[in-house]
Amino acid sequence: MTVEESETSAGRLLGTVRGPRDVKRMSAEQLALLAAEIRDFLVAKVSRTGGHLGPNLGVVELTLAMHRVFDSPRDRFLFDTGHQAYVHKMLTGRQEGFDQLRQRGGLSGYPSQAESEHDLIENSHASTALSYADGLAKAYALRGESRNVVAVVGDGALTGGMCWEALNNIATARNPLVIVVNDNGRSYAPTIGGLADHLATLRLNPGYEKVLDAVKEALGSTPLVGRPMYEVLHAVKKGIKDAVAPQAMFEDLGIKYLGPVDGHDVAAMESALRRAKGFGGPVIVHAVTRKGLGYRPAEEDDADCLHSPGTFDVETGKLLAAPSVKWTHVFADELVAIADERPDVVGITAAMAEPTGIAPMAHKYPNRVYDVGIAEQHAATSAAGLAMGGLHPVVAVYATFLNRAFDQVLLDVAMHRLPVTFVLDRAGITGPDGPSHYGIWDMSVFGVVPGLRIAAPRDAATLRAELREAVAVEDGPTILRFPTGSVVADLPAVRRITAADSVSGGVDVLAESARTDVLLVAVGAFGQLGVEVAARVAEQGYGVTVVDPRWVRPIPPELVTLAGSHRLVVTVEDGVRAGGVGDALAKAMRDADLRVPVRDLGVPSVWQPHGTRAQILADLGLTAQDVARDVTGWVSQLDDEPIAPVRVTAPNGDRATKGRNGRGVA
């Protein structure tokens, strides 16, 4: 694209920006115009692709100031979570990529090392940037490199314990480090004016610190009056500072505080950042911003300021997709119904009340729902305490985020055999948010927890039923997992097989034939795929029994018994294969001395790129057509040369694969 074409597409000034140097040359008037063009660009592009709109509208001026004061990529910018990195991408030469934002082959919705030398942290979970920054600043100090580290964290991220652990270490290390707190959740106005600016400049002057140390030393050596006089002077200084800025909490940690600063004033932000840069130690720059600024529909969206909309109409901000019933909606509705019946049921979420569906219960029973902030570890152990107190907590989080609380689930909840239900939204391959947000680890990671049971509903009806079964469990934790998006049509079972001593609630048979060639175990929302596969394979003359285990961990004994009556067992899941349901079933069959070959289809232990769920499942061969072709090929081989039921191990320790990604044999 030529400069002229770029200017037409992005706006006159924005089209000329190819890197941070172009921003540094602009006048104040040009910067104001550029900020407006950036907001127009963001609204136009995100309306077509979906993405994180509100956070980026709120950091336009802040990001401009950062690139004018610091020299990226030599100076490193670390964005916590990365929701607010779109403006940074635009100022570092990636404007053209926004036409394919979050789409296969296009720009990631988060910082990405593969895209630009200006990005360091890949898309990550919240409250981590300060720990990265602490280590990076220490590394530069040890290597003798004079480079600035700038971490941008939201006020929401500061609800996470990792931030405070990092701040404690940052204060102790005393390395040069600028922490920009993007505060878009407070109602108070930024402190501005000559006195505040003067005091901020004074506090961040290294000479001021030397004078304080000299005065402290001199007064400390003066008998009787010296130490009391120093304490009085220090108290007066601190009192003046606390009167003009809410800084005591940070400075008590030993980190200089600067602000609040108007985050939408480029000149004010530049001034603050330059002083922080020159201080030579850790500094908090408190920027007050407004999420969604400059786009009225975002500003007026009380729920989340259009935090992460799908495609929408630019004029109204209304979503273009037709309304549909989501998995989250079904869970939310059933949870409220259960709460109506059981006063002991309480809800917990980690700063995700609306996205996880816990909000309707919070609206109806505000005293029975707790939002703990971005603190999944605390959520799990707090739930343990609630359970010890006689309640049944339902902890609603994204599947990928429960990974952060494995130790708490294992030792604080499960070891005490506590009745806590974890509801995992966005389980499996979720799509455009990329690998850090794929919920593909839970069945493998939590499958090793003693006494924990995992359910994977296939449709709305089984979600409701299995949620009720989960909260009825009194002797240990449960997990209920379901994917993102619209819920699939209900798929009634042909029959249910339940053993006399069953604790799993039985196995649903979704399709069967007179021949028992293949047992196809369809996990969760793959139930419909399993039925389609059975029909395709039947056309080749083979019979397929399709079952939904319902409770996938531990492996139901009914499932092992069924496996023994078939020639081949195939499992299909959208979790990682290593340690997944297929792996667990193969082990259970070996323990039962069943010599039936098992093929497990799932997600290999590699990082999957961002793209739609359908695209990624197709890449993995997890479509009805692909699975039917593979099943037909495998079962036809048994007619001539039966496959020995022996685990095949690849050199890297993963299960050996045959054909496309995500296919293996046990």
Summary keywords:
7-stranded mixed sheet; alpha/beta; disordered N terminus; 666 residues; globular
Please count the helical segments.
27
How would you describe the shape? globular
Determine the fraction of residues in helical runs and give it as a percent range. 40-55%
Strand order of the largest sheet: 7-6-8-9-11-10-16
Question: β content, as a range?
Answer: 5-15%
Describe the sheet with the most strands. 7 strands, mixed
| β-strand number | 19
Mean pLDDT: 85
Radius of gyration: 28 Å
Query: Segments where pLDDT lies below 50 for 5+ residues?
Result: 1-8, 186-196, 239-245, 642-661
- End-to-end Cα distance, whole Å, is 52 Å
Which structural category do the helix and sheet elements fall into? alpha/beta
Question: Can you describe this structure?
Answer:
By secondary structure, the chain is of the alpha/beta class. The protein contains 27 helices and 19 strands. A 7-stranded mixed beta sheet has the order 7-6-8-9-11-10-16, sandwiched between helices. The two termini are 52 Å apart.
Task: Describe the secondary-structure layout.
Elements: H1 3-10, H2 20-24, H3 28-49, H4 54-57, H5 60-69, E1 76-79, H6 86-91, H7 129-143, E2 149-154, H8 161-173, E3 177-183, H9 194-203, H10 206-220, H11 226-244, H12 248-253, E4 256-262, H13 266-279, E5 282-288, H14 296-299, H15 327-341, E6 345-349, H16 353-356, H17 359-364, E7 369-371, H18 376-388, E8 392-398, H19 399-402, H20 406-414, E9 421-425, H21 442-445, E10 453-455, H22 460-472, E11 478-481, E12 495-497, E13 507-511, E14 518-522, H23 527-538, E15 544-548, E16 551-553, H24 557-563, E17 568-576, H25 581-591, E18 598-603, H26 613-619, H27 624-640, E19 663-665
Helix pairs in contact: 5-13, 7-8, 10-11, 15-22, 18-20, 23-27
